Amino acid sequence: MSQSPSALGAWHRPMVARLAGEENRTATALELFFDLCFVTAVAQASGAFEHELAEGHVGDGVLGYAMVFFAIWWAWMNFTWFASAYDTDDVPYRLLTLVQIAGALVVAAGAAEALQHEDFTVITWGYVIMRLAMVTQWLRAARSDPERRRSCVRYAVGIFVVQVGWVARLALPEEWGLPTFAVLVLAEIAVPAWAESAAMTTWHPHHIAERYGLFTLIVLGETMTAATAAVRTALDDEAAISDIATLVVGGVLTVFALWWLYFSQNAPQRLTGLKAALLWGYGHYLVFASAAAVGAGLAVNVAHATGHGHLSDHAAAATFTIPVAVFITLVWLLHHRAEELRSRNDLIHPVAVLAVLATTFLPVPVLTTGVLAATLVATTLVVATRADGGADPAEAGAA
């Protein structure tokens, strides 16, 4: 039996599964608050990433950013799918969610230290706080949902065991850091597949798609904030507006286009089973990470244009063009099945991605990237409209 949480919450409700086909299911105020607090960690990670790139530490910066962003993304994703299945909105649920938010803030506090000095102590403890709160949530669900008790227990046990591994990793020699990180990431990723194989939880496709869309919106918004801060810093340092005008126009065009490309897709229709859901959910690691990295790359290019930083022209351009190319590629792949890729129209996105990467070696790479991204949006709209026999372009864009 499904139940819908009230706006005011309640002291306690049995954590029974919500219906996967529940009507009018939307994100709650708590989920939105959760996202906004998590984006603080995203901002700190992308800011530290920008600093590393500007200093010329590209390899270490990319690796550190990938590691830090995993902690943010994985904790966010696990909460999102759990909430889709078991959001009771009672007092214990709210308190445990607030604990996870507190953990995200600890992660945010440790992001710079992890990227710049490879010290993952603070970020690990923040991550473990978030994950142990999820263990408690799964144990609540196991108690109240006999039909899926095995799945819930598997989630709780799997998450707890891996957290022991993360804490133990802090005591290992430095040279073991990267190999043990890789092993623990694989263990984290394996837990949902193992748990769901016992009995699938009742996540809601439209709710999941909305939640991912909302987080994409917030990350893109943070990208604009980071870019604006970089422009303001440049102007405060008495940079000429002519030095950064093409960067501003190109950056705005690019972010607008990325938003359009993401939200022109019909995500719920892709979430048809466990395999599709896992691929779609896991693939968003690169969607979110690349979206945040676009802001860092744009900031690096602004600093480079005003005489700051240690990168060559092409290397600075690549910090922007590569994450844009990754975002376009992943959004395209995640919203298309392999059997659909049969016509010449399916070459539009790959060609656009190659063109974006090629702009790395052009005189005004950021502006050219923005123009290419906008052209991609226009092209997909025209193709979709023709395929739909002249339907409304806004609706046809979702094809």
Structure, explained:
With 399 residues, this protein is mainly α. 74% of the residues lie in helices and 0% in strands. It contains 13 helices and no strands. The chain has helices spanning 29-54, 58-86, 91-117, 121-144, 149-169, 177-196, 205-236, 241-263, 274-305, 313-334, 348-358, 365-387, 393-396. Residues 393-399 have low confidence and may be disordered.
Brief digest:
This protein is mainly alpha-helical. Helix content is 74%, strand content 0%.
Radius of gyration, whole Å: 22 Å
The count of β-strands is: 0
Distance between the termini: 35 Å
Listing every helix as H and every strand as E from the N terminus to the C terminus, the arrangement reads HHHHHHHHHHHHH
Q: Identify the overall geometry.
A: globular
- SS field, number of helical segments: 13
**Overall pLDDT, averaged?**
87
Q: How helix-rich are the residues, as a percent range?
A: over 70%
Structural category: mainly alpha
Biggest sheet character: none
Into which percentage range does the β-strand content fall? under 5%
Q: Which consecutive residue ranges, at least 5 long each, have pLDDT under 50?
A: 393-399
